[in-house]
C-alpha cells in the first residue's frame, strides 16, 4: 500500500500540534478491543530538531484524536479511532524520537485511580453502571438483559476495576470507547450474523490453535441458601448447567438460583472461548470492529464463524495492515431458570430508583454497528497529513 492519510487533533498548552505530529509521524497503531480493557493507541514521532524534547514536550493527561484514511482506496472515508488520554511518554536518541501511548478512558482520573469502599444494594448491573459512568463524566451504552443484584461490596476498588470484575462475574462484556462506557452481552453478539467473509487468499498470514485444556462441557456451582437455617439439610445447593463430561466446578457467593446460574454460565462460556482461536493479518481493513463476527473460508475444518476479540490497525511507512484476534463461536451454555423465577428474583431485589443517563437496546443497531458508523463519519476537526 503506497500511502495513507492521517488526521490528528492534539493541543498541548495552547499549541495546536496536529500538523507537527502529521509531518513527522513514523508509525501509528490503534487497538480496538471487544472487552476487558480500554481501546488504545501508540504513535512514534521523529524528533530530528529536538522539538519534542524541548518546548513541545507532551503532557500526561492531554487528549489526542486520531483518524485513518487509506489514500489509495477509492472513495475512502475517514476511520475515526476516537479520542485518547496520553498516559505514556518515551523519548530516545539517536535518532531522536518521541513515542506516545494513549488509552480511551474518561478524563476524570478517579475512574481508574481512586479506590472506593461501598456497598451496592438492591440494584441492577445497569443501575450501578449508570452511577459509575455519571461519576466518570461519560455516557453509558448498555445492551443486554436486566441483571438484578441483591448486594455486593466494592471493597477498596476503583470504579474501573470494580465494574470490569462485576461484568465479568455475570458474563457481560465491558470496554471504554471514545468517552463512553460500553456494556453488552457477548453471547448475544456471538449469535449475530457475520459482517463479512474472509478467505485465506485475503490473509497476509494466519495462525490457528485448538485446545481441550481449560474448556468444558458443563459447570457446577455450589452455594449456601441464605434464606434457610444452617441446620437445614437443603441449605447447600448445587447448580449444574451443560452436559456431563469435562465439568468446571467452583464456589461463589450468590443470592438465588438465578444468580447462581448467571455466574455459572458466565464462567464456563468465558473458559470455552479459548477452545478454537485464530490470529490473522489482512491488508488495512476498517470495516470490521471488535465484538462483531466474521466467517472464515477456504481453510477446511478451520472454517466457521468467529467472534472478533481484538482489532489492531498498524500504519507505517511500508503500508497499512490490520491484525484480528478471533475465537470460534461455540454453543453457549445458558441458564435454566424460568421466566417466573426471574420475575420473582427481580421483585425481591428491585430498586426503588429508575436508571437514567443510559441507552438500553432491545433491537436495531448494536454497539459495534454504531461504532463503525462513527468511524466512517467525516469530521471537520483535525489536521491532515500524508504518510
Account of the 3D structure:
The protein has 387 residues and is of the alpha+beta class. Among the domains are: 116 residues, no CATH class; 99 residues, Phage tail protein beta-alpha-beta fold (3-Layer(bab) Sandwich). 20% of the residues lie in helices and 41% in strands. Strands 1, 2, 3, 4, 5, 6, 7, 13, 14, 18, 19, 20, 21 and 23 form a 14-stranded mixed β-sheet that branches. The chain has a four-stranded mixed β-sheet with strand order 11-12-9-22. A hairpin with a 2-residue loop joins strand 1 and strand 2. The longest helix has 16 residues. The termini are close together.
Defining traits:
single chain; alpha+beta; Phage tail protein beta-alpha-beta fold
Tell me briefly what this model is.
This protein has 387 residues and is α+β, with helices and mostly antiparallel strands.
Are there runs of 5+ residues with pLDDT below 50, and where? 351-357, 375-387
- Describe the main β-sheet briefly: 14 strands, mixed
- Estimate the strand proportion: 35-45%
Mean of the pLDDT scores? 82
Structural class: alpha+beta
Number of helices: 8
What is the helix content? 10-25%
Shape: globular
Q: Indicate the radius of gyration in whole angstroms.
A: 23 Å
What is the rounded distance between the termini?
11 Å
Please give the number of β-strands. 23
Amino acid at each position: 500500500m503506497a500511502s495513507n492519510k492521517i488526521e490528528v487533533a492534539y493541543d498541548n498548552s495552547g499549541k495546536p500540534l496536529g500538523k507537527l505530529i502529521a509531518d513527522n509521524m513514523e508509525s501509528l497503531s490503534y487497538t480496538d478491543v471487544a472487552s476487558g480493557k480500554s481501546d488504545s493507541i501508540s504513535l512514534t514521532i521523529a524528533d530530528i530538531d529536538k522539538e519534542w524534547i524541548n518546548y513541545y514536550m507532551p503532557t500526561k493527561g492531554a487528549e489526542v484524536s486520531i483518524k485513518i484514511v487509506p489514500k489509495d482506496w477509492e472513495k475512502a472515508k475517514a476511520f475515526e479511532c476516537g479520542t485518547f488520554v496520553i498516559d505514556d511518554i518515551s523519548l530516545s536518541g539517536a535518532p531522536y524520537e518521541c513515542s506516545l501511548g494513549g488509552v480511551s478512558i474518561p478524563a476524570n482520573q478517579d475512574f481508574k485511580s481512586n479506590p472506593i469502599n461501598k456497598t451496592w444494594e438492591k440494584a441492577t448491573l445497569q443501575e450501578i453502571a449508570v452511577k459509575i459512568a455519571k461519576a466518570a463524566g461519560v455516557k453509558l451504552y448498555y445492551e443486554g438483559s436486566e441483571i438484578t443484584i441483591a448486594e455486593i461490596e466494592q471493597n477498596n476498588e476503583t470504579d474501573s476495576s470494580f465494574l470490569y470484575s462485576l461484568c465479568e462475574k455475570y458474563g457481560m462484556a465491558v470496554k471504554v470507547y471514545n468517552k463512553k462506557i460500553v456494556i453488552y452481552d457477548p453471547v448475544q453478539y456471538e449469535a449475530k450474523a457475520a459482517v463479512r467473509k474472509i478467505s485465506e487468499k485475503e490473509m497476509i498470514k494466519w495462525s490457528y490453535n485448538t485446545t481441550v485444556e481449560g474448556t468444558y462441557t458443563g459447570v457446577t456451582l455450589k452455594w449456601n441458601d441464605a434464606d434457610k437455617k444452617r441446620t437445614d439439610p437443603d441449605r447447600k445447593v448445587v447448580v449444574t448447567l451443560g452436559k456431563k463430561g469435562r465439568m468446571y466446578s467452583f464456589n461463589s457467593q450468590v443470592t438465588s438460583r438465578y444468580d447462581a446460574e448467571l455466574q455459572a454460565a458466565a464462567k464456563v462460556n468465558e473458559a470455552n472461548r479459548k477452545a478454537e482461536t485464530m490470529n490473522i493479518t489482512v491488508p488495512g481493513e476498517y470495516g470490521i470492529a471488535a465484538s462483531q463476527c466474521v466467517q472464515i473460508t477456504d481453510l477446511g475444518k478451520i472454517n466457521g464463524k468467529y467472534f472478533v476479540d481484538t482489532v489492531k490497525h498498524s500504519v507505517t511507512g511500508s503500508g497499512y495492515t490490520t491484525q484480528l484476534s478471533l475465537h470460534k463461536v461455540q454453543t453457549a451454555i445458558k441458564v435454566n431458570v424460568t421466566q417466573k423465577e426471574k420475575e420473582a428474583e427481580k421483585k425481591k431485589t428491585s430498586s426503588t430508583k429508575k436508571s437514567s443517563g443510559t441507552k438500553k437496546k432491545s433491537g436495531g443497531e448494536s454497539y459495534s454497528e454504531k461504532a463503525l458508523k462513527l468511524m466512517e463519519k467525516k469530521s471537520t476537526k483535525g489536521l491532515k497529513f500524508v504518510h
